[in-house]
Amino acid sequence: MNKASEILIVGAGPAGCSVALCLSQMGISSTLVDKEKFPRDKICGDALSGKAVEVLNKLDKTYVSELNRDAHFLGSWGVSFVAPNGERLRVPFRTKKENAMPPGFLAKRVDFDNYLFQKVKASPLVNILEETEIRQYRREGNEIAAETIDGKTIRAKIVVACDGAYSSFSKSIAGLTTEPAHNCFGLRAYYEGVQELDNENFIELHFIKDMLPGYFWIFPLPNGQANVGAGIRADKLTDKKINLKKAFEKVVHENERIAPRFANAKRSGDVKLFGLPLGSKKRKLSGSNYLLCGDAAQLIDPFTGEGIGNAMMSGWFAAQQIQRCMESNNFTEKFMAQYDKELYHRLWSELQLSYRMQQLVNYPSLFNFVVKKANNNPVLSETISCMFEDLDMRSRLKDPLFYFKLLFS
Ligand SMILES: Cc1cc2nc3c(=O)[nH]c(=O)nc-3n(C[C@H](O)[C@H](O)[C@H](O)COP(=O)(O)OP(=O)(O)OC[C@H]3O[C@@H](n4cnc5c(N)ncnc54)[C@H](O)[C@@H]3O)c2cc1C
Fold first, then answer.
1. Does residue 32 line the site of ligand 1, with CB under 6 A?
2. What is the pTM for the complete model shown?
3. Which residue among 44, 109, 112, 136 has the greatest number of ligand 1 atoms within 8 angstroms of its CB, and so is best to mutate?
4. Residue 384 pLDDT
5. S-S: 231 plus which of 38, 186, 247, 379, CB 3.0-4.6 Å?
6. Alpha helices (H) in 255-409, listed in sequence order
7. What is the whole-number distance in angstroms between the Cα of residue 295 and the centre of ligand 1?
8. Where are the domains of the chain?
9. What is the position in ligand 1's atom list of the atom closest to the CA of 185?
């Protein structure tokens, strides 16, 4: 059976579902395919940042309060940074929290992705094809033809590639490559019984000497579970000859601060590894008849490793572009480039800043120093907190004067 569809979205993760939901709101129909059957797992730290919440609010004002009532979701109020010397800095995501929804959430991806997927499924404007894997693409006149592994062809005026970190579309049609200096490897395991989880569900980032410039994380989940993992840039992994799985096990079993917390913990399932394409370099995200979103567009925050929010944000911008294309019947490379412009306008300064912060982690003593200072200085600690609410505050970090003032304040 050969099918024609104006808009084909490949991949029903946060990027693909955001495109489909936003198009539905605009009254534009689409076909959404995924090789898996939902609910499906995705290797991740399971932390939904403020940006994911921002896009959820753009999609539908009721979603966030739904998540807040759902037992599969845990509201998260902040982040703890643990410096290489073990000193901890607790940074709330928001300075005030009266009557407010949590600024972030923690939920297993199997649950969050299925939540979004069910919202898409409820839309009459989205034709969903699960267990449909696209094997290859080819250009046919003014369309792109996507061939499934069982030999069917779906032709589309626009393909939106949301097929994740190992996107075949990005490689074969858009020509994106994976560069070790702009790519990270991360692994994740689920545990029960980890001691001393934060009572306000702060996520914990531990900057451990043997893993720098990467980090080890412990993120609380509903029902006393925890998502525990580690990530490091691909080139550093090779240069420093780190075996990430062994380094991870060593922290869990031997690190003097971490291991006691795992004394009675039980792991459920395996430790699983996956790639994180970082947004530390600008790429070309569109071409004639296509747009790249989420991990397929290599948009993960190079400091925190967060990609869900950027995936959803790119999905939202992609839908705006598609609307313009449909209105003007223009699918050319030049016209599509408006998407790159708008998306990077929203994300680029943030990505650049995170890239600088990633480089800062290479200097453990500077990290130790900032944490110590912030703990002794309420104004500084509040400043860092405000950085999570206000990007302009974060940009202070790239100003050398900021460190100078810190030293002498
Ligand atoms: C270890 C680790 C920890 C992370 N922790 C966090 C975190 O805590 N917070 C955060 O915000 N981000 C985190 N990330 C990043 C985050 O997981 C990604 O940025 C996010 O999943 C990107 O969403 P996406 O929709 O682009 O891709 P995905 O979520 O990967 O979805 C892609 C979809 O495409 C489908 N697909 C792939 N190929 C095909 C094909 N050929 N045909 C049809 N369908 C296909 C897949 O089945 C999948 O459903 C982490 C990543 C890793 C690896």
1. no
2. 0.94
3. 44
4. 67
5. 186
6. 308-328, 333-360, 364-376, 378-387, 391-394, 400-408
7. 6
8. 2-76+106-179+280-357, 180-277, 363-408
9. 53
Q: Using DSSP bridges, classify how beta strands 183-192 and 215-220 pair: parallel, antiparallel or unpaired.
A: unpaired
Topology (CATH) of 2-76+106-179+280-357: FAD/NAD(P)-binding domain (3.50.50)
Residue nearest to atom 7 of ligand 1 (CA): 45
Structure tokens that stand for 277 in this block: 């394409």
Yes or no: say if 176 and 170 are a contact pair by the CB < 8 Å rule: yes
Dist CA 108 CA 142 (whole Å) = 40
Please tell me if the domain spanning 2-76+106-179+280-357 has the same topology as the one spanning 180-277.
Answer: no
234-259, pLDDT tens digit by residue? Answer: 999 999 999 999 999 999 999 999 99
Minimal-distance CA residue to ligand 1 atom 42 = 133
pLDDT value at position 403? 54
pLDDT at 2: 43
Q: Is any ligand 1 atom within 6 A of the Cβ of residue 184?
A: no
State whether the beta carbon of 186 lies less than 6 angstroms from ligand 1: yes
Averaged pLDDT of the chain: 91
Average pLDDT of 308-317? 98
Cα–Cα distance, 79 to 93 (Å, whole number):
7
What is the token pair recorded at 37?
């059957």
Mean pLDDT across the stretch 38-45? 98
10 lines ligand 1 (CB under 6 A): yes
222 upstream amide cis, omega within 30 of 0:
no
Question: What length does the chain have?
Answer: 409
Q: Is 259 helix (H, G, I), strand (E, B) or coil?
A: helix
Hey, whose CA ends up nearest to atom 18 of ligand 1?
A: 307
Mean pLDDT within 345-357 = 90
| Sign of the dihedral through C-alpha 256, 260, 261, 266 | positive
Please tell me the class of the 180-277 domain: alpha beta
Measured from the CB, is residue 163 less than 6 Å from ligand 1?
A: yes
pLDDT at 389: 57
Scan for tokens 């959803």, then name that residue.
312
